[in-house]
Amino acid sequence: MSSLRLPIAKHFDRVQDGSIKLQRWDRMDRTDQELPPDAKCTRCRGRAAIRMPSHHANFCSQCFVHYFRNAVKRALKVLGFSEPVPLMVAISGGKDSLALWSVLHDLGYPTRGIHINLGIDVFSDASEEVVRRFAQERGLSYTAYSLRQVFGYTLPEIKTRTRRKICGVCGLLKRQLLNRLTIQEGFRNLALGHNLDDEAGRLLGNIVRHRYQYFPKQYPLLPSSHSRMPTKLKPLYRLEAHEIRTYCGLSGIMPIEIPCPLSRGATSHSYKEALDFLEARMPGTKRDFLFSYVERREPPHAKPDFGTCKHCGEPAYDDSCSVCNLADRLKNTRPQPQGD
């Protein structure tokens, strides 16, 4: 792979995203239970409609939206983005990325969405259609790329050529390509839709597996360490998955409802389910677990320890970047028959 070219993509005016299938313990969460008729909103003392056990509070719909936006504003302030600056927003079509794009727009941040179609039958086209509708309905702009367009293979094609777990390969490619495409689009900051459940599950997995080498990046802000790398921020890290689902319902956001067919067996689901099990019995466990870690450590500092890939000119730890290394391996590997 002599160079990785990022061609001019299609530009659109609007997009919509999709919701991830609920986890088993989320379905049993007490937030789904109906409140008694005399339940009062903790903020305005009107009729409450939404149960918030982790906050020992109940909200009416209007006060919940106020709470949600304030949580994002607080996160942005903690991360050093209290004043509106242009943000590229990674849009998958799921509930998290659509909710993030919506609330950032409502808070006055200039945004542009970026979507990568992974080439997964039915799922990827449905996701891109959700993004298109969402953007069109709200007058938002975005750019859509395909993985084949920017890398040369779809994700199912990659799966037939590698023994590596496909979720790990997908994560690597999305991280690297979103970095490159964000800079190509003229943005210096990339907002990601990782929520509290995602971050707490990742932290638990790193602790259980003794993956201490990942702790330096276990923070909702990763500053740029290279001129070809954007600063990455996670403004939803203070919000749980069920809170984001509630916000989507109240805001008329219709994310994709089908899960990625290649994500079955992903270990991240198991760690999230373990935390959901504890949360159902001890509300606030997930928040305490994540925040006690984040608030006790120093924010990461930019460390310009990257070199430049000799093939594509992008940031790399060695002479060749991880994307070019993967492309070389795939080029020299024949597709393998896939079982059911």
Describe the structure.
The structure is a single chain. The chain has 340 residues and is an alpha/beta fold. The longest helix has 19 residues, at 166-184. The radius of gyration is 20 Å and the shape is globular. A hairpin with a 4-residue loop joins strand 2 (50-52) and strand 3. 41% of the residues lie in helices and 11% in strands.
Summarize the model shown.
The chain has 340 residues and is an alpha/beta fold. It contains twelve helices and eleven strands. It is 41% helix and 11% strand.
Strand order of the largest sheet: 1-6-5-4-7-9-8
Strand residue content = 5-15%
Number of helices: 12
Number of distinct beta strands:
11
What's the SSE pattern? EHEEHEHEHEHHHEHEEHHHEEH
Helix-strand makeup class: alpha/beta
What is the CA-based Rg, rounded?
20 Å
- The overall pLDDT average reads 89
Percent helix, as a range, is: 40-55%
Shape by Cα distribution: globular
Q: Point out poorly predicted stretches.
A: 1-31
Tell me the distance between the termini. Answer: 32 Å
Tell me about the largest β-sheet: 7 strands, mixed
